[in-house]
Amino acid sequence: MKTIAETGIDDLSQMNFDVSEEQRLILEEVDRACRELRPFEDEAYLASRFNQHLVPIFKKAKLLGLPISRLYGEGQGADILTYALALERIGREGTGVRTFLSGHVSLGQLTVQKWGSEEQKERYLPPATRGEKVMCFGLTEPTAGSDPSSLRTSFEDRGTHYLLNGSKAWISNGSIADSAVIFAYPKGKREGMCAFIAEKGFEGYTSQQQKHKLGMPTSDTGSIFLDNCKIPRENLLGPVGKGLGVAYSGLMSGRLSVAGGCLGVIEDCIEESVSYAKQRVQHGKLIGKHQLVQRHIGIMSTNLDAAKNLVYKAALLKQKSDEQPANLDLREVADVAIAKAKYFASNASFDAADRAVQIFGSSGYSFETRAPRHLVDTRVCRIYEGTDEIMVQKIAVSLLGTDFEAYK
Ligand SMILES: Cc1cc2nc3c(=O)[nH]c(=O)nc-3n(C[C@H](O)[C@H](O)[C@H](O)COP(=O)(O)OP(=O)(O)OC[C@H]3O[C@@H](n4cnc5c(N)ncnc54)[C@H](O)[C@@H]3O)c2cc1C
Asked: I need a surface site. Which of 31, 218, 257, 359 has the fewest CB within 10 A?
């Protein structure tokens, strides 16, 4: 693998994480929307249901197409770092809230923006950025998770349309989405995967909500069933046979969004812990004065800083890579940087949530406080969009070389 300098980026010291005036204004709006959302999210969380206020509030703040070009509806054309900073703020409100945006924007809209024809972008992006339609990304299947090359969903080319058969499982926004980016192999083949845009209204398309999840009760997760689903010819997404590339590019955006959201989780855990440690008295003093409690806070804060550096660096590399799509070395550097950011930030957020629960003691065992929500919600960040194991193997192979790939 080439070094960062060899890929056309002069030096890491050139990376500037300063927030510009334009970014500051966007982030102020994100903060305002998050404050408005919180009481509704609290209510929805305890009632274990999707927060119906999320889309209207985020629509008002123009967050539903933040990194999408201004050419499409309410797209705001924000750069990748600004989008990551917004997701960081949104992550404080909970992984369920952030997961909605990961599915709708990072995996759904950004994939259509990158691979779609002009006609597809004009058809799908404006209603999505305006919050009139919800998007999702259907790669995982009951028997294909870490290994997307083992998908069973198939398509047949029927001239005017494609006929898809199969099912998708564990899809964020899966049962509420109006359209889905779907991946399938030609019938009877194990190569030549294609990507399609399917709509809820298409014949043979049904969906169902996944119940009894460990966490994220306000995030919709669903299955999608394709039973002789007729997809119009013009809904093929990207070149024929390049579906795996479409999927991996979507996953790069998705992983970065997970990592960004995890920063917010750690921040909320720290804020809650510091506040509680300054109120709760045991053994005649505030628990914040007990050194073992201080240790938890010190570790959370250190991990937050480390995670921020990884996430912001990955965001800037992704931005550069998006600007130079022909530079495959740069793409690989960005891919590995994103893997590091996701792996570290998701583990650090789970660790922070666990420490926050510990500081709250028995109060931290009630979902009426925020720490245990983060604990169960952020756990999925170590699983979806590439598990911990897949991330560290990707990182290791970038050093060892492709001869050492753990899987093909
Ligand atoms: C709440 C939620 C939301 C999700 N949202 C989406 C979505 O929007 N779209 C979508 O397409 N998918 C989504 N997923 C699916 C998610 O991306 C997959 O669950 C994930 O990729 C892991 O796949 P799997 O669950 O099949 O686990 P498996 O791939 O079966 O893995 C099981 C275990 O084996 C390990 N393992 C597998 N292969 C290897 C290997 N080669 N080397 C070492 N260890 C290995 C894994 O790391 C893991 O620990 C979501 C999942 C959840 C839980």
From this structure: 31
